């Protein structure tokens, strides 16, 4: 049992740690405070939990058209957030607002959706729900540790972190929007 939980923690850390749009916003917001950065991560984690519940209980009712629309919405949201980072004016500066940004990014991120539709449900079937508890424990560790490190040591590199964050979010946004449009026009 402990092995499955630890495996889940490792999985959660491996999913949360790679550079991507959510981590870019977490890094940017962590310069304000550790809580601003963490709130973005916890918003995205709430989206993961929502997907877990949907996949676990309603997996046979998911419509492909809805997923296509989420691609387009996710792409537009990420392009908007990239613009906010480069202008140093994110849409919200409160922790509550950052939580909502993380939640919206997570709910409209096709990569998160695709992971839960494929690997996520497979992990539950193979290892039991205990691995999901470990997964969320790993995400919690990341959502608290990463903003702390950026807030504590990243101020020297703020300009470069913001440029990198802009490029990552813009790239993901354009790519996701492109995929959404392709999926929408394909029969």
Topology of helices and strands:
Elements lengths: L1 H15 L4 H10 L3 H25 L5 H23 L8 H13 L2 H18 L2 H24 L4 H28 L2
Helix pairs in contact: 1-7, 2-3, 2-5, 2-7, 2-8, 3-5, 3-6, 3-7, 4-8
What does this molecule look like?
It contains eight helices and no strands. With 187 residues, it is an all-alpha fold. It has one domain (2-185). The radius of gyration is 16 Å and the shape is flat. The chain starts with a helix and ends with a helix.
Question: How would you describe this structure in keywords?
Answer:
0% strand; single chain; 187 residues; mainly alpha; flat
Short description:
By secondary structure, the protein is mostly helical. The chain has one domain (2-185). The protein has helices at 2-16, 21-30, 34-58, 64-86, 95-107, 110-127, 130-153, 158-185.
Determine Rg (CA atoms, Å): 16 Å
Poorly predicted sequence stretches spanning 5 or more consecutive residues: none
Give the structural class.
mainly alpha
| Number of helical elements | 8
User: Which word captures the global form?
Assistant: flat
Percent helix, as a range, is over 70%
Strand content: under 5%
- Please provide the ordered H/E string of secondary-structure elements: HHHHHHHH
């Amino acid at each position: 049992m402990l092995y499955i939980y630890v495996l889940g923690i490792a999985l959660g850390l491996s999913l949360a740690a790679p550079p991507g749009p959510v981590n870019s916003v977490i890094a940017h917001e962590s310069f304000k405070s550790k809580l601003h950065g963490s709130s973005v991560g916890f918003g995205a984690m709430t989206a993961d939990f929502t997907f877990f519940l949907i996949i676990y209980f309603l997996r046979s009712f998911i419509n492909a058209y809805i997923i296509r629309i989420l691609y387009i919405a996710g792409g537009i949201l990420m392009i908007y957030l990239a613009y906010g980072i480069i202008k140093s004016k994110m849409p919200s500066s409160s922790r509550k607002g950052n939580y909502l940004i993380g939640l919206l990014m997570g709910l409209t991120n096709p990569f998160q959706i695709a992971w839960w539709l494929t690997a996520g449900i497979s992990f539950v079937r193979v290892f039991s729900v205990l691995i999901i508890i470990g997964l969320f424990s790993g995400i919690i560790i990341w959502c608290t540790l990463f903003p702390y490190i950026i807030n504590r040591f990243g101020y020297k590199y703020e300009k470069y972190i913001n440029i990198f964050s802009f490029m990552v979010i813009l790239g993901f946004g354009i790519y996701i929007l492109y995929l959404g449009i392709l999926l929408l026009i394909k029969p």
